[in-house]
Write a structure and sequence with these properties.
Distance between the termini: 12 Å
Structural class: alpha/beta
Strand order of the largest sheet: 5-4-3-2-1-12-13-14
Helix content: 25-40%
Number of helices: 10
Order of helices and strands: EHHEHEEEHEEHEEHEEHEHEHEH
Number of strands: 14
Length: about 260
């Protein structure tokens, strides 16, 4: 029995211009509430950025930072941070790889250095509404949840492979491709986050549906009762999904939710 629907945002719920059909969503959301079905956002993005898309829904729960930070407007359900020693070791290893642009993502804010390309900082602010530019990462006073890396597009797979070896026991690289890589905590992913939230809400993974398009959605789509891949999803994501829907541009998530409600 369907009790919770979770969705990724970029390339999944959102169109490419970072909008969605708000009128259609409002109608579907009302129907979900009437049936007691939770709607949850599960994303690698920062909580403060995700919340900005749903200002009219203060009760919305966010499985943010790839499952490391789970909260709504009022309550933090779970927060998982790297140890201080792991942060130091990961930063040391990342600094040896050329051409990386790095954001260190904490519970209070994300952080980048004053030496970071200003154009990259400007772009990053679209995804990190709390972003501080600092002199040294060592000065951060925050719980670190994730490392967000931007690299040359054509080197993404190679860098993921390099990090998978270099960070054994410290962190796990995950990527949606196109020059974006997140280093997350070992065993921490959207599926783990949904399972943890499910324990709070009394909902099993088998009673959840999830939508996704990228590498950091693989576990989530594999573990829930109904995993739905976007038509624009990466091939490995389609391979683990139970079904596919139309593209994010065509609002495939909303189309499928409407179909699920009809069924």
């Amino acid at each position: 029995m369907l009790k919770l629907i979770a969705t990724d945002m970029d390339g999944t719920f959102l169109r490419d211009d970072m909008t969605y059909d708000e009128a259609k969503f409002a109608l579907l959301y009302q129907q979900l509430q009437q049936r007691g079905i939770r709607f949850v956002v599960a994303s690698g993005n920062q909580y403060y950025q995700l919340r900005s898309f749903f200002k009219d829904y203060p009760e919305m729960i966010y499985v943010a930072e790839n499952g490391a930070y789970i909260r709504d407007n009022q309550h933090v359900y779970a927060q998982h941070a790297f140890s201080a020693d792991a942060v130091t070791q990961i930063l040391a290893k990342l600094e040896t790889i050329p051409d990386l642009k790095l954001l260190v993502c904490g519970a209070k804010s994300a952080y980048t250095l004053t030496t970071t390309d200003p154009e990259h900082v400007k772009l990053a602010r679209h995804y990190y509404h709390h972003l501080a530019v600092i002199d040294r990462f060592e000065d951060i006073d925050d719980d670190i949840l994730k490392f967000a890396i931007t690299c040359p597009d054509e080197r993404t797979k190679a860098i993921v492979a390099e990090l998978r070896t270099a960070l054994v026991g410290l962190g796990e690289p995950t990527s949606s491709g196109h020059g974006d890589i997140d280093v997350i905590q070992p065993g921490m992913n959207k599926a783990a986050g949904l399972q943890e939230l499910g324990q709070v809400l009394g909902i099993e993974l088998a009673d959840m549906a999830a939508f996704g398009d990228g590498g950091n959605d693989l576990e989530m789509l594999r573990e829930v009762g109904l995993g739905v891949a976007m038509e624009n999803a990466q091939l490995p994501v389609m391979a683990v999904a139970d079904r596919t829907t139309t593209t994010n541009q065509e609002q495939g998530v909303l189309q499928t939710i409407a179909q699920l409600l009809e069924d």
